[in-house]
Structure formats: structure tokens, C-alpha cells
# Entry
Amino acid sequence: MSTCPIPALAQADTWPENAAMPTPADLLRTWLGAQPWLDAQLTRIAAGDERTLFLALGQAGRKVGRAPLASDAAAALTARADWNPTGWSADQAARSLLVLALPSGEATRWLATLDRCFHAATVEELVALYQTLPLWPHPALLAPRAAEGVRNAMTPVFAAVALDNPFAAEQLTNEAVNQLVLKAFFNGLDSSRIVGLRRRLNPDLGRMLAHYARERRLASRPVDPLLPPLARACGADCPD
Amino acid sequence: MPSPETRNLNPETLHLIDPHVHMSARTTDDYEAMRAAGVRAVIEPAFWLGQPRTRVGSFEDYFASLVGWERFRAGQFGMRHYCTIGLNSKEANDERLAAEVLEILPLWVGKDGVVAIGEIGFDDQTAAEEKAFRAQLELAKQVDLPVMIHTPHRDKGRGTTRSMDICLEHGLPPARVIVDHNTEETVAETLERGFWAAFTLYPRTKMGSERMVEVVRRFGCERIIVDSSADWGVSDPLAVPKTARLMLERGIPRAHVETTCYRNAIAAYALDESDWLDPPPIDQRLLFCGNKVLRGQTPVVPPAQRAVE
# Structure
């Protein structure tokens, strides 16, 4: 995943068996089974054909179908820490593979092309693109994109960044993580699915959560039972 | 809430489609009223926004909202949303900008939910409009999508004939072309030549529900489509339900009402009825009837509220 050749070489020298380990892309491709259309697109995109990428992202649902993906949770965790593709559909896996095939050597150009994909994406495509966040190289370059996903007004798109996705806790600033957690509660989502949240608890988050709980109580609205314990874990005073 | 005029329609038994309505310009009340009156799906054609755009980025953001946000917003109200993508005739007259817009269209036309190239055709019937029209007919052939034609408000007869001539010249089968904004004067030729004849029901001018009833009585239901074209102007998003009700009251056979206000749109735009009648239990598109997104959690706020938060 590293762009710097020296640590990559060092890693290969130290753990040669790692070279044979399947990558997340290898796994996604295996789980999809025979896909001649997809393979043809992947070859062209890997050669730098951006127009093929733009068209194929739109067509993937009709070409590959939308059946649940036959994924393997244990293999996924071995290929990428905290990666959980359970619940992905075939079109999401295909779209993920399409963008993963794009050459990433020239980071600036790669990012500009990804930005065009995001900008022209439908809701389904956005979900697949944001689910791909933990699988791309150059994670630091993608942090602003993830923060943009947290701001998205379409719940499924927000959920693709916020839930079952290790990228946010690994890369986002405290400010963005705090917004993500608050927004998850706001949207009635299951906060226990925010990956790595325990590592990102901070006093500001505690204050925001406690304030939100008070606001809900004053309006006689129910408070998510997961909220007060989380606020207290951040050091805030927040009764159940 | 359904208005008194639409309450008599039983939405459980008569499904309707509004195959030309600019929902981006409408409120959530409209979605609720349309849904209550039996409208199950809408098609939102790309068009102009009341004033000319000056940059290609404005078109990109507009197309993005048609395939993204508006489709999601509609789903929150139980409405399946499709769109058409195209450069409208008015803005085709800014030739520099038109060239830029035509260049980006391939980025959008392959998307889920895009059911046609449109609305395209003539406004002032200029050479620039014709050039953009022809280029988009070729694009429609390439991506195998039907075409929605906007016929001009001025010099309508000539513009309608010319639009159909040009479609045939480019080898498009009439069965793949929906000619919209017909009147009593243009419908005979449109139908005779084998095209779909759509009618936009405007509250005050041009076609109204009363006249529409007479058109169906005279021409039957084959290849005739009813729509509202409701937008930010004086228009009625309930035009299709109201016309359907009037047709029933005036003795048009129920089968003809269903054909003109529902079935023909499905056939012309190759829609999949199961999209709204039988959505998949785990809808990976997560678009339709917002509770799906909660994946079994109890909703804390109602779907309508979540859509705006």
C-alpha cells in the first residue's frame, strides 16, 4: 500500500510469505466469480483508460447484478485490518474493483480522477466508493474526501463512511470524528458499528454527546441508550 | 394530504406515473400529495432552470442532483425517481457552452435511473439547436436509450414535424421516441408516424384535463401518455391524478386510463414495475422508503425528517 519503495522492499525481505497473501482486491474479484465484462473493463482501466472507468461505474449494476456478495469475513480481516465487507452486494464489489484498478502511481492525477468519479456518482456508486476508502493507497490524501462523505445529506452515503468502515477512525481529525458520531445518533444509526470509535474518544465528543442528550430530554424525546455510556467514557457527566 | 379533488381515486387500485415532472423544483408536500393520489414513479427530465447557466459546472451539479440527491429525496417519500439526461434546446444556443455540455454527457447517461436522453429538440428552431439535437440523437443510439422530445411552444406544428423527420433521418425507430407537449393539432401526425404522443397538462394554457379527456376519447389509448411537466412555474404536480379521475368520471374505460396514465410510460421508457411494487427486501440501493437504511433498527426520527437533517 505504501508509495515509498524502500519500506515496501524492507517489508518483502522481512516477511516474504506476505507477498503471496491475497489483497482485498484479489478477494473481491474471487468472491464475484466469473465476470467477463468486468475483467475486460478492469484491464482497460489498469492501462489508464479513464473513460472506461466513468462509463463502467454507471453500468456495473446492470452488468454484474445486485445479489449479495459471497464474502468471507475471516479472509477479509487477514487481507486488511478491521475490513468488514459483510453485507456488500455484487455491484458494490464490482464498482470497488473498478476504482481500485486505476493506476495510483501519479498520486495527483489519480486523486483528480477519483474526484471526478465521486462528483458524477449516483447514490449507489457513492456508497460503493466510500466503502472502498480503507482499500485505497494514499490514505492521507483521501481524508478530506471521507470528511466530505460525513457531511453528505443522503443517509446511506453517510452510513457507508460511518459504519463498518475502519477508515474514519484511522484517518479523520477529532473534529470530523465527533461530527460523525453525533450525526450517527441524529440519524438513528447503530453507533456500535462505528469501527475503532473506542480509540478516538475525546473530551469534546463527551461534551457534545452530553449536550445532545440534554436537548433530547428537554424536548421529551428518547435518548439512544448507547449514548450516555459513550459520553461518560469520554469523561462527560451524562446520566442514563 | 390528498386534496378533495384527488381523494376519490383509490391509490390501492389505480397506480399512476408522472413521466415528465421537474421534482427538484417542488416541495416535500408535493411528493406526499402525489403519493397519496396514487403516483408511484416519476421521470424528471433534465431541462433549463428558468435562467441560462453560464458554466459547464452548473450542468454537472444539476445532473449530479438528478441521479443522486433528488432520487434519494423521492425515495424518502415512497416515490421511485428516474431521470433523463440531455442538453435542452434553449441552452443549446450558447454554442461554446453547448459543446462543453455535450462533451460531458457520456459521464452521466450510463447511470442507474437514467431512462432516456432528453428533453431535447427545438425551442427557437435555430441551427445551433439542430446541431445539439442531432448530436444527442447519435448518443441515444450509442447507449441504446429512448429519446424524450420537447416540442417548441412557438411554431409548434412545424417544429414537431421537423423533430420527427430528424429522428427518422438518424435511424431512430419511432417506438424509441417520445414526442412531448402535443396538442390536438399535432397528435394525429405523431401517432400516424408511429411515435409516442405525450401530453403535458398545464393548469391554464395549452392542454387541460378536459381537453385531454376528449383526446383519449377520440384517439384511444395506444401510445398516448399523460404528464404534468410541473416545475417552478404555474403548474400542477397532481395533473396526472386529476386527469385520470376526470377520465373515469367522463366514462373513459378504466383500462384506457391505466394505459395512458401508467402502462404506456412503463413501455416507452422500459421501466421495471417491480422497482416500486416489489422492491428487494434488502435494498442495497438503500434508496427507497428510508427505513431500509436503518437495517432493522427502530427509527428514531421519521423518514421525512431524516431527509432534511
Remarks:
- Chain B touches chain A through 36 residues (CB under 8 Å).
